[in-house]
Each structure stands twice: as C-alpha cells, then as structure tokens.
Amino acid sequence: MITTADETLLRRAIGIAAAAIAHGDAPYGSLLAGPDGTVLAEAHNTVRRDNDISAHPELKLARWAARELDPGTAARSTMYTSCQPCGMCAGGLVRSGIGRVVYALSTEQLVELNPQSGAWPTVVQDGPALFDEARGPIDAYYRPS
C-alpha cells in the first residue's frame, strides 16, 4: 500500500528524473530512504555520460546500499524510483537486501510512452553443460577441505 509519505518521496524521485535531462542524461531517477524515511542517497541515469550500460540509478543505489548499510537497515529501507526497475536492476536490488521498492511508471507504461524502451532483443542461452568440470571451482570455494 502506497502512503502519502511514499507519494512525497516518489515525487522527489520523479524530480530527480526531470533534473537528469538538464545534465543531458536519460530521465530516470531514484532515491533510497532509510527506515525512518530519511533520504540516504539519490541517483539518476548516467548510462550515456558514463558509457556504462549498468549506470541505472536503481543499480547504483543497490550497490551503495550493499556497501554502506548493514543488512538490517537495508531490509527496512525503501527505494523510490521514477520507473519500475528493469531485470538487471531488479537482480541487483534482490542481492542488495533492500526491503521495498516503490515506483511511479510500470515497465508497460514506459514502453507505451516510449516504444523504443521495449525493443531489447533476447539473448540465446545454451546450457547447462560440463557439470563435472564446472562444479570443481564451486566445490573448492563453498566446501573447502
């Protein structure tokens, strides 16, 4: 359930997205709020400027949270973001331990507004293969003698 406090912080994330345009960046913004609602960090998309496909604000903040927050604080923190996190960012969010995400536009709404946003090709994946060989490093790391 989205509260009035959530809406206030979500509007701030939308404002970060709008401000990104003035820097020549794509219009995506996010912020991370701690358990008490205090803004801990903010970021916007810098994919083009940084020439880095991973420079989405959600992933930047997920990495920040994983580095800077203890697991309990991360679990009680909320990310507010102008658009629903993509698959790459969603994976980072899971691993960061952030407990909640509140977003403004869904992926479907974004694609409706900008069809190019949904024009990603699929990548062929073949496997699994070479189980006995591949398990060696895994066993060595997770089951040391």
UniProtKB/TrEMBL annotation:
Any GO MF annotation of the entry: catalytic activity
Stored Pfam families: dCMP_cyt_deam_1
InterPro entries according to UniProt: CMP_dCMP_dom, Cytidine_deaminase-like
Domain of life, source organism: Bacteria
CMP/dCMP-type deaminase domain residues: 4-121
Identification of the protein by name: Nucleoside deaminase
UniProt source species: Kitasatospora acidiphila
